[in-house]
Design brief:
It is globular, with a radius of gyration of 16 Å. The chain is 0% helix and 55% strand. It has 174 residues and is mainly β. Strands 1-2-3-4 form a four-stranded antiparallel sheet, with no helix packed on it. Strands 5-6-7-8 form a four-stranded antiparallel sheet, with no helix packed on it.
């Protein structure tokens, strides 16, 4: 295909992020920030014109690895952004104009993956799984019985079933 447009990163961004197409055809992109757990989110028109950019620092300072900067669009067109590191995570809800609806932080560690069903966000990583409702309240959580590190994780929703799993290093092995 023929390249229509491109946007390049800016200083202080890692070349890691995610891109989604919104229901109205806009493009939303995320990038990790050099502050280890922060994220930048930008929205572009289908022609590549930037509509807005928002930057969110790390929820908590950490020397551990950052989690991915994930973005989801709910059925109303609002966006949910996750950013994290080993010491905590941030989940932000933005309206389509980029205004912050709510901004929640938690000490529950890194988010490795998330899934959206309706307006409920399910997250997995760092030895915990959690559900956040549309108002940002955490209404359900499950944890391992000990602190885990170097996790991989994934979550999937199939109808009314939620599948979540992760691996964790324990004494040098998974």
């Amino acid at each position: 295909g023929e390249q229509v447009w491109q946007q390049t990163g800016v200083t202080g961004e890692y070349p890691a992020g995610e891109v989604i197409f919104t229901m109205n055809g806009d493009v939303v992109a995320t990038n990790l920030l050099a502050d280890n757990g922060g994220a930048r989110i930008s929205r572009y028109t289908p022609a590549g014109d930037k509509l807005w950019t928002r930057t969110f620092g790390a929820a908590y300072k950490s020397y551990g690895l950052p989690g991915p900067a994930l973005v989801f669009e709910d059925y109303r067109g609002d966006l949910l952004l996750t950013s994290s590191n080993s010491d905590g995570h941030r989940i932000v809800k933005l309206d389509s104009a980029g205004r912050t609806v709510w901004n929640k932080t938690s000490r529950n560690g890194i988010i490795k993956d998330a899934a959206l069903k309706g307006s409920d966000l399910f997250v997995v990583g760092g030895g915990f799984n959690a559900k956040y409702e549309s108002d940002g309240s955490r209404v359900a959580e499950s944890k391992t019985d000990r602190n885990v590190q170097i996790t991989t994780g994934s979550v999937a929703i199939d109808g009314d079933k939620l599948y979540a799993g992760y691996s964790a290093e324990n004494n040098g092995s998974f």
